[in-house]
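During the no-cost extension, the postdoctoral fellow (Dr. R.K.) reprocessed legacy sequence entries with the updated structure-token encoder. One reprocessed record is reproduced below for audit purposes.
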Amino acid sequence: MLSPENAQLKDFPKKFNPIKEFHRHCQCSSIGTDPNNCFDFYLDFIGYSIDRYGFNRYNDQVYNASKNGFGHEERCLLADSLKLFEDTGYEDVYKYIDLLKPFT
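Re-encoded structure tokens follow.
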């Protein structure tokens, strides 16, 4: 797709926007910086956290997700972000997430 050293968010197709929306939503929530936020769950679920950093970010039991901010809106954002994998490879998704700098 794009070379990672020159890529910018605006260079990616619009189909990647759900990931950016999910990330932005979680950063604006009251627990956005908490390592158990919904976007961190997504990063762990798709394997990004282990692949890029060697550890999982979401450190709570899945059944506690609702207390960590996972409501209906977050489940919909998660679903939209996962749909990208229907026709996009992991590495392209990971490159896009890299540009969001999710762990800073």
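The chain has one domain: 13-100. The mean pLDDT is 87. The remaining legacy entries will be reprocessed before the final report is submitted.
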